Amino acid sequence: MSIKLRLTITQFLEFFIWGSWLISFGNYMFGMGMGDKIGTLFATAGIASFIMPAVVGIVADRWVNSERLLGVLHLLGAGCLFAASRATGFDRLYLCMFLNALVFMPTIGLSYSVCYGIMAKNNLDTVKDFPPVRSWGTVGFIVAMWIVNLAGWGTSPNQLLLASGVSLFLGMYAFTLPPSPPTRARKGSSLISVLGLDALVLLKERKMALFFFFAVLLGICLQITNSYGSAFLGSFRADYPHSFAVKYNNIFLSVSQISEALFILAIPFFLRRFGIKAVMLMSLGAWVLRFGLFGAGSPEGVGMIWLTLSMIIYGMAFDFFNISGSLFIEKETPAKFRSSAQGILMMATSGLGAIAGNYGAENVINRFTENHVTDWSACWFIFAGYALVVGGLFAVFFKYERG
Predict the structure, then answer these.
(1) Distance CA 260, CA 297 (A)
(2) What pLDDT shows up at residue 189?
(3) Which end of the chain is more exposed for a tag (fewer CB within 10 A), N or C?
(4) How many CB atoms are located within 10 Å of the residue 24 CB?
């Protein structure tokens, strides 16, 4: 089996695990009578993203082969997901999913590191060869969503059992990958350097401080529809039981992931034509549309058109800020700080932003829920208004004319 194929399998399985439950889990929690705690549970991913990648990075750099660490973390994740499938109360479910987040979230970056290391040893060009390998991760995510939906597991703990089984397999498979030994961090390195936080010094510069501030504000938007999208579509079940968007809500929501994969291909054109700041503003405008179209949508008639457009616009909303923001860091930071700055960007968006976004969305949705009935339109329009305000502030205060 070729190296590329082996790494492709790794990426496919990595994101298959996540796709097995991430999108449908909100609907599952509503069915379990835990709808008022969705944001609290989904915030665990943000907490884990803020803490664990640096910790796991230290272990991989100093003591343990990356592929072995990847295997151990997925084996632990398999146990956490299995335990979560047996949980009936929120406290136990939260504990299991929090532990799963702690071991799963760092595996995303770790799986990239394994791929980079193995490719380099086999004289492959990571810039050319890694993107096609990584694209199969998105395919794995989508395939998992479809399987869960077609099997009728969207409101069943079987989605967690599926994720657990695949995590167990990937955990064992990782041990068969070519070795990626520790790089041994330089002796005498400061704790800040070891944690990959050297770039914090960049926050002294107004432009960079503003960029990371807005990265946190944008990060608040990133996971709201992932957390609540399936629950929102499930709320139409009584009125539209036979609608495709309700009956196959996971498949319908997977259009967002397909859009994400396609919009990545369009980014070079938009960057050349409009520049980095304009592309970031397009992302914020797309978030306004993403939420606003959800608020105007319904599973039939014209409302279905709005929902479909919201799925399509997601790719621009998600990709354009993440990619253009990453390129902004590449252009504007000294070479010695670039890796650290990219890590801080991830902490800002998927860490602090995701935590604030999930807790904030939970409070808004609970505020507009009475007798287990949620005024979803009001919630989505509030989220759209928030994205509009952030976009306006970004346009006024973030000065960047180059690139």
Answers:
(1) 20
(2) 56
(3) N
(4) 26
pLDDT under 70 in the chain at which residues? 61, 127, 183-202, 335-340, 342, 401-403
| Burial class (CB within 10 angstroms; exposed 0-12, middle 13-18, buried 19+) of 80 | buried
For residues 192 and 340, give the distance between their C-alpha atoms in angstroms, rounded to a whole number.
10
Amino acid 21: pLDDT: 96
Q: What is the pLDDT of residue 372?
A: 83
What's the CA angle centered on 67, arms 65 and 70, to 5 degrees? 110
Do residues 403 and 275 touch, judged by C-beta distance below 8 A?
A: yes
Which of 177, 176, 49 is closest to 114 using CA atoms? 177
For residue 351, what pLDDT is reported? 87
pLDDT score recorded for residue 326? 77
224, 364 contact by CB (below 8 A): no
How many Å apart are CA 77 and CA 337, to the nearest integer?
32
CB 49 within 8 A of CB 364: no
Q: Which residues contact 356 (CB under 8 A, 6 or more apart)?
A: 46, 216, 219, 220
Cβ contact 21:160 at 8 Å = yes
pLDDT of residue 91: 96
What type of residue is 141? F
Structure tokens at 365: 């949705």
Q: Which residues of 36-50 are buried (b: 16+ CB within 10 A; e: fewer)?
A: bbbbebbbbbbbbbb
Report all structural domains of the chain as residue ranges with CATH numbers, in order of start. Answer: 1-181 (1.20.1250.20), 195-403 (1.20.1250.20)
C-alpha–C-alpha distance, residues 92 and 87, integer Å = 6
Polymer length in residues for the chain: 403
Query: Distance between the two ends of the chain, CA-based, in angstroms?
Result: 42
The two structure tokens encoding residue 264: 């990545």
Instruction: For residue range 196-232, list pLDDT tens digits in order.
Output: 556 566 677 888 888 889 999 999 998 899 899 999 9
Signed CA dihedral, 375, 376, 377, 381: sign only: positive
Structure tokens at 50: 């803020």
Residue 369 per-residue DSSP state: E
So what's the pLDDT on residue 231? Answer: 92
